[in-house]
TrEMBL record, chain A:
InterPro entries: AH/BAR_dom_sf (IPR027267), PX_dom (IPR001683), PX_dom_sf (IPR036871), SNX30_BAR (IPR028649). The keyword Electron transport does not apply. The gene is Snx30. The keyword Protein transport applies. PROSITE patterns: PX. Residues 86-207 form the PX domain. CDD domains: BAR_SNX30 (cd07667), PX_SNX7_30_like (cd06860). One of its GO terms (biological process) is piecemeal microautophagy of the nucleus. GO terms for molecular function: phosphatidylinositol binding. GO terms for cellular component: early endosome; phagophore assembly site. This is Sorting nexin-30. Keywords: Protein transport, Transport.
TrEMBL record, chain B:
One of its GO terms (cellular component) is early endosome membrane. It comes from the Eukaryota. It comes from Nothocercus nigrocapillus. Belongs to the sorting nexin family. GO terms for molecular function: phosphatidylinositol-3-phosphate binding. GO terms for biological process: positive regulation of autophagosome assembly; protein transport. Residues 12-140 form the PX domain. InterPro entries: AH/BAR_dom_sf, PX_dom, PX_dom_sf, PX_SNX4, SNX4, SNX4_BAR. Keywords: Protein transport, Transport. This is SNX4 protein. The gene is Snx4.
Length: 420, 402
C-alpha cells in the first residue's frame, strides 16, 4: 500500500510542475493549502479510506463509482497531460446534412485514436448527431455525479432567428462539440467512463441507448444520489467560496457577453456608414483630373477597411461569444454539482446525528453512516480535483480567448494600415 | 508671383472673445469678437521684433469685407469664409455658435481667410482690405462709401441671365457644371463622414466597459487577476483615444468645407460671365433690330412684320420729314449702340481672360491643397491604426501573463 501511494504522489507532483506556485496571500483557498499538495493529500486520504477496514475487520463497502485499483492504474497512466504520454485522441469534424422524411439533421464524424486497453481497436470513426452528445452528457451526469461535466453548446435555437443549417452555425457547434469531447478525454476519471467508450466506438448507438434504458429500470441506478430535504449544517469554507466565486464569475461573463454583442452591433452600424462613405470619394474622383488618383485611393482604402471590419465582427461572433456562453453554462452545471455535494453532506450529518442520539450499543458501526461519510469525502475529493483542473483549464482557455480577441483586432488594424 | 501682402506682413487671428452689446434694434446681444494681429515682416534679421498692431473684428465685419470683394472683383474666385453656423455635426459636436470648440475652429477659419486674401496677387492690393487689417474705427463707413452695394447685381437678374443666355463661353458652362457637382459631392461626403465619426465614437467608447468589468472580474481571480486588471486599463486607454482622433479629423472636414464654399465662389464667377454675356447678347440684339428698323424706314420695304408697318399701311405712311427725323434718331442710337457693343465686347473678353487666369490659379491651388488634405487624412488613419495596434498588443501581452 505504501509503495503504491508513493508512486501516486510522484505522479501527482509531476503533474503540477506546470502550474505556477499558487501561494495566495489571504486568499479564499488558504485552508485548502496549495493546490498541488492538496490534490495529493486528498488522494492519499481517499486511498486510506478505501483500504482501511473497520475496527472489527469488516471491509467497508463503498459505493463510490471508481474502484481503488483501477483508479490507481488510470492515474498512473494519465499522469502527463502534455500529450507526450497521452493515449487517447478524439476529434469532431466533417459535418453532413441528412434529409429524411420526418426531419432534417446534421451528423458529425467522431474519430478516436487510442492505445488504451479499454478499447478493442486502436482507431474508430463513427457518426453522431447532437442528440447523441446530449445523451452522453446526461449519462455522464448520472454516472459521475461527483464530477464536473463539461457543457454542451445550447440545444435549442430559435427557428427563424438562427439558421440551423448555415455554415457559421454548424461550424460554431462543431467546435463546441469537439471541445466537449476533448475535455472529457483529458479528464482522468470521465475518460474511462463506459458510456463514453460506447459513444466513441459503437456503430449503432441507438441500440445501446435502448439497452441502457432497460438495464436501468431493472437495477435502478446504484449511484443515484436521490437525496433531498436535508438541511446543511455548515458548508466547508472552500465550497462556499467556490459557490460565491462561480456566482460572480458567471455574472461577469454575462456582462462581457453583453459588451461584446454591443461592440459587434456598433461595428456593424459603423460598417453600414463606411459602405456609403467609400463610393462618394470615387464619385468625386470622377469629377477631377489630377485628384482622381488620390481620391480613388481613399475610396479603395475605405473599401478594404469594410472587408477587414466584417471579418473582425464575424470572428468575434463565431469564436469569442460561444466560448463565453459555454463557460456560463459550465458555471451553471458546476453550481448544480455543488448543490448535490451539499445534499450528500447534509444527509451524512443527519444520519450521524441520528446515530449519536440513539446511543445504543455500538457493536457495529452502521454501514449507512459510513456509506454517507464515504460519499461525502469522495465527493469533496473529486470536486476539489475537478475544480483545480477546471480553474487551470479556464485560465488557459480565457488566456487563449482573450489573446485571440486581441490578435483579431491587431490583424484588423494591420490590414487597414497596409492599404492606407 | 508679385509681391503679395502676405510676404510683407504677418497676419494672425490670435484670440476670440465673447462680448455683449446692443444691436441695431437696441436689443442686447452676445457675439464673439476676434483679435487680428499684424506685424511687418523683417527683411533683415536685426533681432528686433517689429511692433504688433491689433484690432478686434466680429464675423459680420468679415462678411462685409467679403461682399465688398465679391462685387469689386467679380472675375476673381474670392476665398470663402468659415461657416456661419455649425453644419454637418455629429452627436458629440455642438451646434451652438458659442461653443468653445466651434469658436476655435472658426478663429482658425477666419485666419485662413485673411491669409488667402493676403496671398492673392490681385486682392491683396485692395485698400479696403488693408484698412480692414489696420484701421479699427470708421472702416465700416469707408466700405459703405465705396457704394459697392449699388454695383451688386441682383440675384433675379443673374437668374434670368442664366436661363436666357444663348452663347456662353463653353469653358464657363463646363465650369458651372463642375462646381455644382463638386458642391453636391463634398456636402454628401461631409454628411456621411459625420455619421461615420458618430459610429466610430460609439465603437471605441463601448470598449471602455471592458475596462470596468475586467477590473471587477480580476478581483475574484487568482493567477488571472493581474493580467485582467492591466488589460482592462488598456481598454480604457483605447476608449479614450477616440476623442483626439476625431478632433484631428475635424480639421480635415474643415479643409473640405473650405472647398465646398469655394465651389460657390466659382459659381459666382460663372454667373457673372453669364450675366455679361447675356447683356452683350441683348445689346447686340437691340442693335440689330434698330438697324433693321432703320433700313425699313429708309427703303420703305417691310421685311418683317411690325406693328409700325401695319399701322402705316392702315393709316397711311408718315410724311418724309417724320421719316427723316426717325432715321436720324435711329442712326444716332445705332452709333451709340455700336460703340457700346464694342466696349461690352471688350469688357467681356477682358473678363473672360482675367477670370480664366484666376480660375487656372485656383485650380492649381485646389489640387495642391486637396492633395495635401487627403494625404494628411491618410496619415491620420494610419496613425489611428498604429495606436490601435499598440493598445491591442499591450492588451494581448497582459492576457498572455494570465
Amino acid at each position: 500500500v505504501v509503495a503504491r501511494n508513493k508512486r501516486v504522489i510522484t505522479a501527482a507532483a509531476k503533474k503540477k510542475k506546470k502550474t505556477p506556485h499558487p501561494l495566495y496571500p489571504g486568499g479564499i483557498f488558504q485552508n485548502t493549502l496549495l493546490y498541488g499538495k492538496s490534490v495529493h493529500l486528498l488522494i492519499l486520504l481517499f486511498f486510506s479510506i478505501q483500504d482501511l477496514s473497520l475496527p472489527n475487520g469488516t471491509p467497508v463497502d463503498t459505493s463510490s463509482p471508481a474502484s481503488s485499483s483501477s483508479l490507481l492504474n488510470r492515474l498512473q497512466l494519465d499522469d502527463d497531460l502534455d500529450g507526450e504520454t497521452r493515449d487517447l485522441f478524439v476529434t469532431v469534424d466533417d459535418p453532413k446534412k441528412h434529409v429524411c422524411t420526418m426531419e432534417t439533421y446534421i451528423t458529425y464524424r467522431v474519430t478516436t485514436k487510442t492505445t488504451r486497453a479499454e478499447f478493442d481497436l486502436p482507431e474508430y470513426s463513427v457518426r453522431r448527431r447532437y442528440q447523441d452528445f446530449d445523451w452522453l452528457r446526461n449519462k455522464l451526469e448520472e454516472s459521475q455525479p461527483t464530477h464536473l461535466i463539461p457543457p454542451l453548446p445550447e440545444k435549442f435555437v430559435v427557428k427563424g432567428v438562427v439558421d440551423r443549417f448555415s455554415e457559421e452555425f454548424v461550424e460554431t457547434r462543431r467546435k463546441a462539440l469537439d471541445k466537449f469531447l476533448k475535455r472529457i478525454t483529458d479528464h482522468p476519471v470521465l475518460s474511462f467512463n463506459e458510456h463514453f467508450n460506447v459513444f466513441l466506438t459503437a456503430k449503432d448507438l441507438n441500440a445501446y441507448k435502448k439497452q441502457g434504458m432497460a438495464l436501468l429500470s431493472k437495477m435502478g441506478e446504484s449511484v443515484k444520489y436521490v437525496t433531498g430535504g436535508y438541511k446543511l449544517r455548515s458548508r466547508p469554507l472552500e465550497f462556499a467560496a467556490i459557490g460565491e466565486y462561480l456566482d460572480t464569475f458567471s455574472l461577469k461573463l454575462g456582462t462581457i457577453d453583453r459588451i461584446a454583442q454591443r461592440i459587434i452591433k456598433e461595428q456593424l452600424e459603423y460598417l453600414v456608414e463606411l459602405r456609403e462613405y467609400g463610393p462618394v470619394y470615387s464619385t468625386w474622383g470622377g469629377l477631377e483630373v489630377e485628384l482622381a488618383e488620390p481620391l480613388e485611393g481613399v475610396s479603395a482604402c475605405i473599401g478594404n477597411c469594410c472587408t477587414a471590419l466584417e471579418e473582425l465582427s464575424e470572428d468575434m461572433s463565431e469564436d469569442f461569444l460561444p466560448v463565453l456562453r459555454e463557460y456560463i453554462l459550465y458555471s451553471e452545471s458546476m453550481k448544480n454539482v455543488l448543490k448535490k455535494r451539499d445534499q450528500v453532506q447534509a444527509e451524512y450529518e443527519a444520519k450521524l446525528e441520528a446515530v449519536a442520539l440513539k446511543k445504543e450499543e455500538r457493536p457495529k458501526v452502521p454501514t449507512d453512516v459510513e456509506k454517507c461519510q464515504d460519499r461525502v469525502e469522495c465527493f469533496n475529493a473529486d470536486l476539489k480535483a475537478d475544480m483545480e483542473r477546471w480553474q487551470n483549464n479556464k485560465r488557459q482557455d480565457f488566456r487563449q480567448l482573450l489573446m485571440g480577441m486581441a490578435d483579431k483586432n491587431i490583424q484588423y488594424y494591420e490590414k487597414v494600415c497596409g492599404t492606407a | 508671383m508679385e509681391d503679395c501682402l502676405s510676404k510683407k506682413i504677418e497676419i494672425t487671428v490670435s484670440e476670440a472673445e465673447k462680448r455683449t452689446g446692443r444691436n441695431a434694434m437696441n436689443m442686447q446681444e452676445t457675439y464673439t469678437a476676434y483679435l487680428i494681429e499684424t506685424r511687418a515682416v523683417e527683411s533683415q534679421n536685426e533681432g528686433q521684433c517689429s511692433p504688433v498692431d491689433s484690432l478686434w473684428r466680429r464675423y459680420s465685419e468679415f462678411e462685409l469685407l467679403r461682399n465688398y470683394l465679391l462685387v469689386t472683383f467679380p472675375h476673381i474666385v474670392v476665398p470663402p469664409l468659415p461657416e456661419k453656423r455649425a453644419d454637418f455635426v455629429w452627436h458629440k459636436l455642438s451646434a451652438d455658435n458659442m461653443d468653445p470648440d466651434f469658436v476655435e475652429r472658426r478663429r482658425i477659419g477666419l485666419e485662413n481667410f485673411l491669409l488667402r486674401v493676403a496671398s492673392h496677387p490681385v486682392l491683396c492690393q485692395d485698400s479696403i482690405f488693408y484698412s480692414f487689417l489696420t484701421q479699427e474705427g470708421g472702416w465700416k463707413e469707408m466700405v459703405n462709401e465705396t457704394g459697392f452695394q449699388l454695383k451688386a447685381d441682383s440675384r433675379l437678374k443673374a437668374l434670368n441671365a442664366t436661363f436666357r443666355v444663348k452663347n456662353p463661353d463653353k469653358r464657363f458652362t463646363e465650369l458651372k457644371h463642375y462646381s455644382d457637382e463638386l458642391q453636391s459631392v463634398i456636402s454628401h461626403l461631409l454628411r456621411v463622414r459625420a455619421r461615420v465619426a458618430d459610429r466610430l465614437y460609439g465603437v471605441y467608447k463601448v470598449h471602455g466597459n471592458y475596462g470596468r468589468v475586467f477590473s471587477e472580474w480580476s478581483a475574484i481571480e487568482k493567477e488571472m487577476g493581474d493580467g485582467l486588471q492591466s488589460a482592462g486599463h488598456h481598454m480604457d486607454v483605447y476608449a479614450a483615444s477616440i476623442d483626439d482622433i476625431l478632433e484631428e479629423e475635424e480639421h480635415y472636414a474643415d479643409q473640405l468645407k473650405e472647398y465646398l464654399f469655394y465651389a460657390e465662389a466659382l459659381r459666382a464667377v460663372c454667373r457673372k460671365h453669364e450675366l455679361m454675356q447675356y447683356d452683350l447678347e441683348m445689346a447686340a440684339q437691340d442693335l440689330t433690330s434698330k438697324k433693321q428698323q432703320c433700313e425699313e424706314l429708309a427703303t420703305g420695304t417691310v421685311r418683317t412684320f411690325s406693328l409700325k408697318g401695319m399701322t402705316s399701311k392702315l393709316f397711311g405712311q408718315e410724311n418724309p420729314e417724320q421719316r427723316e427725323a426717325k432715321i436720324k434718331v435711329l442712326e444716332e442710337q445705332i452709333q451709340e449702340g455700336e460703340e457700346q457693343l464694342k466696349s461690352k465686347n471688350l469688357e467681356g473678353r477682358d473678363f473672360v481672360k482675367s477670370a480664366w487666369a484666376d480660375i487656372e490659379r485656383f485650380k492649381e491651388q485646389k489640387n495642391h491643397d486637396l492633395k495635401e488634405a487627403l494625404i494628411s487624412y491618410a496619415v491620420m488613419q494610419i496613425s489611428m491604426c498604429k495606436k490601435g495596434i499598440q493598445v491591442w498588443t499591450n492588451a494581448k501581452e497582459c492576457f498572455s501573463k494570465m
